[in-house]
Structure formats: structure tokens, C-alpha cells
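F.,

This is the one I mentioned.
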């Protein structure tokens, strides 16, 4: 079928609701290195569909991180290498680029009848048979809430906890500039349905391993700030700190927390490439910076991958950031 594309529509249309109106087998397909944004939305939607009689499979190219073991149903999320059909609906959430499934999307096209792409990233590639892309949403979790409400699916405590966690992390703990009254209204409804903010916050931020602070300190000694104070970055060579520490800590937020910094960068060297996370404070569009290297994201939060050694990647990325910051200052 030809793609159905929706832009900035906070309420799902009949075209979006249609695939979920009956029953069957659904695959909740995650992207590489799944975070709470994607896991929370996939688990919430999957659990709600199961309550309506669906059979649901959860998985993606990489396993769920240990940090998110508190999410209801996450123990069912598994690493997938091959997809078995038939599958009636394949759902991807918070995944703007299908390449982030490491080839599973191609398998899904062969064994799945319909691919549904639900996302809020402005640079979403519209790769689904049904594409619901609402760039006005602060989090994809808001969209899944609206979808479940329109379907008349009950908000169980398990569903509410997953969605609250997804919204909490996707908005930077409700700190990003795209947070709206709608975001807080949905969060309030999820708390009323059984999500417990204190449990989510403790699970995300207060369950460090005994050695985590030592490794965190090791990483933070490498934070650098530009002479004018507007750029902050942290470049981590392979093996400097354990991957579990990098995955569990929002390291890029440390240079971002410096008052004068307008753009913060985390550069992680791994397997001959460098993963780059970018965070801005509103006056610099870091999505445009990431796009120069084939990445994407949002105005204030974006990422990309640069092939090559860490020193060279750091040089070219910081040069691009500097151009963007200087351009912002002149505008």
C-alpha cells in the first residue's frame, strides 16, 4: 500500500487507528541500543494490545539495558536476529531512521502485512506503510497515550508506568523546551492510572553500582570547555570507562550543565567509529549539526555517527558546532 503520512496531528486519525482495530499478531520492533523512550512506548502499546486479545512479540537488534529492568514486561523483550511470520502489524516507535533496526526492518517487510511508524522526530524518514509523525509532541509517549485513549484501551498501572517513564526520559525529566501543558496533563493522567514518579526516578537515577561514581569521576576529568565558554565536550576513547557506565549515565548533560555552554557534545569511540550526542540550550539547532554527519534528532537533542579515530572525529564535530554557535551569535 502507499504510505499514509500525517504531520503534526496530536490525535490519531482513522488511518492510524485502523491497524489496531481487530486482532492478530503484532511485533513491537525496537532500534539499536534501546532506551526508555522506545522501550516504554513499545511495551505500553504491546501490553494494551494483549489486553484486547492480540499476540505480541517484543524485540530488536540489541537487548534491553539492565538499568530498565524495572519496566513492566521488559523481561519479554529479546534480541532478534530472524523474524518469523506471519505478522499482522509491525510497530516501530521513536525510531526516525529504519537503518537503526540493523536490517530487521527489511525482514519485517517480508513477513509483516503492515508497518506502522509512530514518532515525533522532525527528520523521520516516513518508512512505514502508516506513518504518524507528530512533531508537536514533546515525547512519542504522548502519542501512544493518545492512541490508547482513542482505542478505548484501559490504562493499567503497567501501561501507565511504561508511558510515564518514556515521557520522563524523552523530555529530559520534563526539562526540554518542547515540553507543553499537554505533556504535564498526560503525565498527570498516567500517575492517576498507577504510575509512581518516585519509583521511576529512583530506578533511573538512584541505582548505581558501587563502582559507578569512580568511573563517572574518571570520565568527567575529560570534560573540556572552550575559551569563550560556549562549547563543552567530553571525548571518551575506547575502553576508558565500562560501556555499562556510559549507557546508564547521561554524560553529555554534565558539560551542558555549565552555565555558559550553548552546545554540549559527548563523543564515544567504539569499533572504528565515534558515536556523537549533542545537546543545546535553545539558540542553536543541534539537529542541523547532526544532519551534516548523517544523523538527526531534535532542536535541543540530536546525535550522529562519525567514522574514524576519536581525535579526528572530535576535530570535525567541534568545528561544525563552532560554526553553528558563531552563526547563532550573529543572527
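My design for it:
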Amino acid at each position: 500500500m502507499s504510505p499514509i503520512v500525517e504531520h503534526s496531528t496530536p490525535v490519531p486519525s482513522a488511518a492510524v487507528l485502523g491497524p489496531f482495530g481487530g486482532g492478530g499478531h503484532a511485533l513491537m520492533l525496537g532500534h539499536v541500543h534501546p532506551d526508555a523512550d522506545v522501550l516504554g512506548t513499545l511495551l505500553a502499546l504491546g501490553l494494551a494490545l494483549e489486553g484486547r486479545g492480540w499476540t505480541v512479540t517484543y524485540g530488536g537488534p540489541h537487548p534491553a539495558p539492565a538499568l530498565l529492568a524495572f519496566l513492566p514486561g521488559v523481561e519479554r523483550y529479546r534480541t532478534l536476529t530472524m523474524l518469523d511470520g506471519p505478522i499482522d502489524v509491525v510497530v516501530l516507535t521513536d525510531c526516525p531512521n529504519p537503518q537503526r533496526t540493523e536490517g530487521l526492518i527489511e525482514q519485517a517487510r517480508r513477513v509483516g502485512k503492515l508497518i506502522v511508524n509512530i514518532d515525533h522526530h522532525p527528520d523521520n524518514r516516513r518508512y512505514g506503510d502508516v506513518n504518524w509523525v507528530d512533531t508537536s509532541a514533546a515525547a512519542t509517549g504522548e502519542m501512544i497515550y493518545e492512541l490508547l485513549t482513542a482505542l478505548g484501551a484501559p490504562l493499567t498501572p503497567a501501561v501507565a508506568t511504561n508511558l510515564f517513564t518514556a515521557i520522563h526520559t524523552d523530555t529530559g525529566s520534563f526539562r526540554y523546551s518542547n515540553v507543553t501543558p499537554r505533556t504535564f496533563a498526560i503525565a498527570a493522567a498516567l500517575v492517576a492510572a498507577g504510575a509512581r514518579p518516585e519509583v521511576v526516578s529512583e530506578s533511573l537515577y538512584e541505582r548505581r553500582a558501587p563502582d559507578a561514581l569512580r568511573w563517572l569521576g574518571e570520565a568527567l576529568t575529560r570534560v573540556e570547555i572552550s575559551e569563550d565558554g560556549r562549547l563543552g565536550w567530553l571525548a571518551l576513547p575506547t575502553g576508558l570507562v565500562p560501556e555499562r557506565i556510559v549507557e546508564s549515565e547521561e554524560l553529555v548533560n554534565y558539560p551542558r550543565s555549565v552555565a555558559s555552554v550553548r552546545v554540549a557534545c559527548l563523543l564515544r569511540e567504539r569499533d572504528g567509529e565515534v558515536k556523537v550526542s549533542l545537546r543545546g540550550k535553545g539558540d542553536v539547532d543541534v539537529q542541523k549539526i547532526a544532519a551534516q554527519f548523517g544523523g538527526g534528532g531534535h532542536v535541543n537533542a540530536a546525535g550522529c555517527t562519525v567514522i574514524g579515530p576519536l581525535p579526528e572525529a572530535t576535530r570535525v564535530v567541534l568545528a561544525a558546532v563552532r560554526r553553528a554557535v558563531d552563526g547563532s551569535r550573529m543572527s
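DSSP finds twelve helices and 13 strands in the chain.

Talk soon.
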